[in-house]
């Protein structure tokens, strides 16, 4: 007997290749992989809106959010998840995004190597030097995943990288059903010795199944070629009686087969993720055909190969789109791409604004808001400094300053408010040092009080005691001096010691 439930999904086109392995130990593993792959197929085009690695990362995070929506509307899917290994070509550069234990291999300049790193518990032990690589296959927790897409982490951590590519190099993406049976050396031998990508795909799948694979097997082989030489992908071959279909192309190849096992008689949750019961069934019957048609139209707009759970979902109409908003998002995406490709001058006036221009406008607005906030903070800070006072020196005189004694570059945050006639040199050494270092004051009144204190200190130091006692003037002499001062309407100046000059 054969279990036709396949938790793997894969897509291969001219610019995009994706392999996703749904978590088979949880309900809805096939839904998770199909939903994720179908949510990424629109990236298979040369005119990306941004750098490929950024676009790929953003779309995978969006696909993860869609999985959370699925679980929200269908709690029976709780705990589902999927691995994702995807590559996106942009010019002569290739972006790779990876999470989970599906793998990416590369054969370039005669060197075959694994590019991705498994996000598994045993791989972490190997990286930490706590487990030898040769012991990983027999470890009891070798299949425990540390990172996947699903409803657990709202923003899962992806491994992202960009590579320069050259015509002739080959890439192989696979689910863990392949490397669970075949060694890397076996995979390398097949990839090196096969001149036909389709034959290489079939050979790897057959060897894996013959070796008793414990899981579904999905393999995609991609060869980088010049744009003008890239042929259209071949159609999916008819499935064998006991396996799912296989597909291969000259420039891209993929195959997916379910694990032969006992018949699976359990009822699978609907891939469209709607609620259960009579109302839910009626909603699915009404919505699924339209959703399936939307996805099929999108896929028909580009040459591709689609296999596994994602292919079954498009054929049966059980497309994993859970909300009207998600469906509208896909429809808008499809219409926008068609409008861009047509380039027709008859496009509607209310067509969507080009995303790049919109992002630039948003960036300018954000920068403007930040600049305004910074200016406001600086102005408030400067206004606060002008409420402060301190006592310092100016031209060797005690002075009262308005502001703070600090400077910002060439800008001084204080200015002289009042200069006194008290020489700084006339102060005691302690007060002279304090004044030179500035004496802070609470306000102007407090600053004037500090100056009065300094004036008294200066008097005490500057006024010498007379060597010979000066006779006190008689009352008549004082009266005459006062009359003279009154007549001239001016009093003689008083020196720092309180005497007449």
Describe this structure in words.
- This protein is of the alpha+beta class and 501 residues long.
- Helix content is 38%, strand content 22%.
- The protein has 13 helices and 17 strands.
- Strands 1, 2, 3, 4, 7, 8 and 13 form a seven-stranded antiparallel β-sheet that branches. A six-stranded antiparallel β-sheet has the order 6-5-9-10-12-11.
- β5 and β6 form a beta hairpin.
- The longest helix has 31 residues.
- The protein is elongated.
- The termini are far apart.
H and E order: EEHHEEEEHEEEHHHEEEHEHHHEEEHEHH
DSSP strand content: 15-25%
Q: What ranges have pLDDT less than 50 throughout 5 or more consecutive residues?
A: 234-253, 259-286, 343-353, 484-496
Mean pLDDT: 76
**Helix/sheet category:** alpha+beta
Number of H/I helices: 13
Features:
501 residues, alpha+beta, elongated, 7-stranded antiparallel β-sheet, 6-stranded antiparallel β-sheet
List the helices and strands and how they pair.
Elements: E1 8-13, E2 16-22, H1 29-38, H2 52-73, E3 81-90, E4 93-99, E5 103-108, E6 111-114, H3 121-127, E7 149-150, E8 159-164, E9 170-174, H4 176-179, H5 184-193, H6 197-210, E10 217-223, E11 246-248, E12 252-257, H7 278-300, E13 304-308, H8 309-316, H9 324-342, H10 355-385, E14 389-394, E15 397-408, E16 411-423, H11 429-437, E17 439-441, H12 444-462, H13 475-488
Antiparallel strand pairs: 1-2, 1-13, 2-3, 3-4, 3-7, 4-8, 5-6, 5-9, 9-10, 10-12, 11-12, 14-15, 14-17, 15-16
Helix pairs in contact: 1-2, 1-8, 5-6, 7-8, 7-9
């Amino acid at each position: 007997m054969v279990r036709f439930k396949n938790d793997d999904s894969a897509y291969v086109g001219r610019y995009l290749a994706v392999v996703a392995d749904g978590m088979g130990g949880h309900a809805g593993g096939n839904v998770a992989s199909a939903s994720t792959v179908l949510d990424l197929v629109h990236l298979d085009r040369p005119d990306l809106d941004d750098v490929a690695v950024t676009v790929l990362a953003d779309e995978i995070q969006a696909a993860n959010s869609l999985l959370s929506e699925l679980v929200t509307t269908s709690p029976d899917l709780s705990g589902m998840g999927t691995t994702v290994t995807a590559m996106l070509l942009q010019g002569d550069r290739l972006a790779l995004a990876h999470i989970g234990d599906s793998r990416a291999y590369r054969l370039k300049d005669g060197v075959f190597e694994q590019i991705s790193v498994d996000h598994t518990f045993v791989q972490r032990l190997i990286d930490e030097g706590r487990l030898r690589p040769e012991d990983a296959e027999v470890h009891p927790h070798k299949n425990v995943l540390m990172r996947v897409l699903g409803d657990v982490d709202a923003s899962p951590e992806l491994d992202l990288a960009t590579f320069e590519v050259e015509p002739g190099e080959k890439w192989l993406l696979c689910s863990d059903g392949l490397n669970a049976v075949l060694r890397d050396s076996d995979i390398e031998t097949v990839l090196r010795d096969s001149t036909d990508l389709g034959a290489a795909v079939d050979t790897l799948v057959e060897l894996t199944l013959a070796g008793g694979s414990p899981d579904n097997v999905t393999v995609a082989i991609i060869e980088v070629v010049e744009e003008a030489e890239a042929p259209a992908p071949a159609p999916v071959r008819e499935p064998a009686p006991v396996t799912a279909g296989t597909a291969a192309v000259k420039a891209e190849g993929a195959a997916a087969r379910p694990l032969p096992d006992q018949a699976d008689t359990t009822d699978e949750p609907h891939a469209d993720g709607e609620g259960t019961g009579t109302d839910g069934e009626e909603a699915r019957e009404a919505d699924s055909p339209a959703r399936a048609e939307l996805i099929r139209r999108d896929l028909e707009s580009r040459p591709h190969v689609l296999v596994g759970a994602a292919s079954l979902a498009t054929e049966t109409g059980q497309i994993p789109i859970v909300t009207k908003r998600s469906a509208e998002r896909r429809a808008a995406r499809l219409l926008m791409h068609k409008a861009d490709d047509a380039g027709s001058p008859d496009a509607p006036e209310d067509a969507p604004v080009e995303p790049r221009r919109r992002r630039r406008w948003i960036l300018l607005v954000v920068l403007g808001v930040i600049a305004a906030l910074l200016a406001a903070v600086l102005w408030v800070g400067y206004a606060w400094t002008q409420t402060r006072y301190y006592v310092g020196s100016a031209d060797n005189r005690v002075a009262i300053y308005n502001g703070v004694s600090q400077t910002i570059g060439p800008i001084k945050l204080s200015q002289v408010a009042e200069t006194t006639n008290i020489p700084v040199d006339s102060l005691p050494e302690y007060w002279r040092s304090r004044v030179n270092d500035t004496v802070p004051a609470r306000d102007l009144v407090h600053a004037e009080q500090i100056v009065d204190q300094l004036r008294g200190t200066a008097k005490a130091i500057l006024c010498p005691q007379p060597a010979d006692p000066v006779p006190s003037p008689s009352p008549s002499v004082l009266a005459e001096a006062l009359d003279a001062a009154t007549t001239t309407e001016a009093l003689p100046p008083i020196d720092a010691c309180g005497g007449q000059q």
